[in-house]
Amino acid sequence: MLIVYPWTQRFFDSFGNLSSPTAIIGNPKVRAHGKKVLSSFGEAVKNLENLKATYSKLSELHCEKLHVDPENFRLLGDILVIVLAAHFTKDFTPACQATWQKLVGVVAHALAYKYH
Amino acid sequence: AMLTADDKKIIAQLWEKVAGHQDEFGNEALQRMFTAYPQTKTYFPHFDLQHGSAQIKAHGKKVAAALVEAVNHIDDIAGALSKLSDLHAQKLRVDPVNFKFLGHCFLVVVAIHHPSALTPEVHASLDKFLCAVGTVLTAKYR
């Protein structure tokens, strides 16, 4: 996401060197943040019946403290789908992709839900 | 977005891998788009949209041919796709958001068939290229 949509770097001034794809790929803060984000996704998958509640505080945080335009959640969701496609190749069937598109959509929606 | 010289080089290189498979990629991208974004089916009420549809295959071939044209005339995509742009503006009037969906599905197909070729840099250039094609096709809408 930081490479493909470089304007998303605007939220990560504290991450140090994001000056090139090589720098981004090797950046330990990026790696740590990727871990954080995907772990949170894991929580979503475990709480699919209750996503808005699960993400309530995170939503408030992204609005009030982080000031992230929810469009960015959509961008990251699409990147995740492509990463999954490259990782799972043929197993990432059209039906699988369709379900994951829905999942990233509802996660993005839940993260944006508390915005005001 | 403007395609840089690097973007164009990267796309030409990637296309060497795609060439020969572009019809199948076009077919698969459409199938994935219809599955993941069912609202896109509204533009094809006259099609059989079942899996394996000959009409989707034929249409995938058309889409692929247009992408090939764009790659082969990457310095003037607007010129190369001018008639197609007219068609979309005057007759088809596909809402612009849908080009993003198809472009995304095309990226997914490339990721599946050429995972190691789709580095972040190649992904970025290909995404820019597909956006540029979508922009050209909707440029005359208003």
Automatic annotation (TrEMBL), chain A:
Native organism taxonomy: Eukaryota, Metazoa, Chordata, Craniata, Vertebrata
PANTHER family: HEMOGLOBIN FAMILY MEMBER (PTHR11442), HEMOGLOBIN SUBUNIT EPSILON (PTHR11442:SF7)
Pfam family, one: Globin
Residue intervals of the Globin domain: 1-116
Gene3D superfamilies for the chain: Globins
Gene Ontology molecular function terms on file: haptoglobin binding; heme binding; metal ion binding; organic acid binding; oxygen binding; oxygen carrier activity; peroxidase activity
A GO cellular component entry from the record: hemoglobin complex
Protein name, as recorded: Globin domain-containing protein
Species of origin: Anser brachyrhynchus
Alphabetical GO biological process terms: hydrogen peroxide catabolic process
Keyword tags: Heme, Iron, Metal-binding, Oxygen transport, Transport
Family statement: Belongs to the globin family.
UniProtKB/TrEMBL annotation, chain B:
PANTHER family: HEMOGLOBIN FAMILY MEMBER, HEMOGLOBIN SUBUNIT ALPHA
Protein's organism: Anser brachyrhynchus
GO function terms (MF aspect): haptoglobin binding; heme binding; iron ion binding; organic acid binding; oxygen binding; oxygen carrier activity; peroxidase activity
Gene3D superfamilies, per the entry: Globins
Entry's family note: Belongs to the globin family.
Record InterPro entries: Globin, Globin-like_sf, Globin/Proto, Hemoglobin_a-typ, Hemoglobin_oxygen_transport, Hemoglobin_pi
Domain of life: Eukaryota
Entry protein name: Hemoglobin subunit alpha-A
An annotated GO cellular component: hemoglobin complex
Biological process, per Gene Ontology: hydrogen peroxide catabolic process
Keyword Coiled coil (UniProt): no
Pfam families the record matches: Globin
PROSITE patterns in UniProt: GLOBIN
